[in-house]
Amino acid sequence: MTSTTESTRELLLSRIRDVADYPKPGVVFKDITPLLADPVAFTALTDALAELCVRHGATKIVGLEARGFILAAPVAVRAGIGFVPVRKAGKLPGATLSQTYELEYGSAEIEIHAEDLEADDRVMVIDDVLATGGTAEASLDLIRRAGAQVAGVAVLMELGFLAGRARLDPALAGIPLEALITV
């Protein structure tokens, strides 16, 4: 668990809206746009994630498309380290590494520019939600294939009932996975 205070967790959670039956019936989507629109909550989130990056010795942050970009870029600025996007396939120019994976609604493919990471980089993965763990697991594979080290994974919210943490345990191999909120 992080050093994030209970009052910060409560603030963040109070700014996350549940949207029933989105993107398909039976799914309750966690909408973070109210949190992003609140400068106090967004700053608290950015500060908490930046503190994790610094604590784990990260030299680069990868943000996962799309909501992970929104979080990771200001966290990188706040922590004083570089930001590298992990994009959906076909969105990055030039040579990329790609990884296909399964997620809760089907399958997808992500890519990264291999030259954006170096062997001595310690990379923190930042995303909004840990659900089934597919996207995070694929990003860990990409970071390692690019030759960098994984410093950790940090998310705003973990959906504990989907068991993403258990899926990631073998890929993490003792590397920290930190969620500011678990529901």
From TrEMBL:
Stored InterPro entries: Ade_phspho_trans, PRTase-like, PRTase_dom, UPRTase/APRTase
Pathway: Purine metabolism; AMP biosynthesis via salvage pathway; AMP from adenine: step 1/1
Molecular function GO terms recorded: adenine phosphoribosyltransferase activity
Compartment(s) where it occurs, according to its Swiss-Prot or TrEMBL record: Cytoplasm
Swiss-Prot/TrEMBL keywords: Cytoplasm, Glycosyltransferase, Purine salvage, Transferase
tRNA processing as UniProt keyword: no
Cited CDD domains: PRTases_typeI (cd06223)
Enzyme Commission code: 2.4.2.7
SUPFAM superfamilies: PRTase-like (SSF53271)
Keyword Magnesium: no
Location (main, coarse): cytoplasm
EC top class named in words: transferase
Residues that span the membrane, as ranges: none
Residues of the Phosphoribosyltransferase domain: 57-158
Catalytic activity: AMP + diphosphate = 5-phospho-alpha-D-ribose 1-diphosphate + adenine
Known partners and oligomeric status: Homodimer.
Biological role: Catalyzes a salvage reaction resulting in the formation of AMP, that is energically less costly than de novo synthesis.
Family, per entry: Belongs to the purine/pyrimidine phosphoribosyltransferase family.
PANTHER family noted in UniProt: ADENINE PHOSPHORIBOSYLTRANSFERASE
Name of the featured protein: Adenine phosphoribosyltransferase
Organism name: Streptomyces globisporus
